Amino acid sequence: MIQGKRVLVVVPARGGSKGVPLKNLYPLAGVPLIAHVGRLVQTLDCVDRAVVSTDSSEIAAVAKKWGLDAPFVRPDSLSGDLISDLDVLCHAVEGTEATDGVRYDVIAMLQPTSPLRRAEHVTHAVQKLVREDWDAVWTVSPTDLKYHPLKQLTVGVDGQMDYFDPDGRAVIARQQLGPVYHRNGAAYAFTRECLLEQRTIAGLRTAAIVTTNRMISIDTLDDFRAVEIEMSRQDGARTQAE
Question: How many CA within 13 A on the CB side of residue 159?
Answer without folding.
Answer: 0
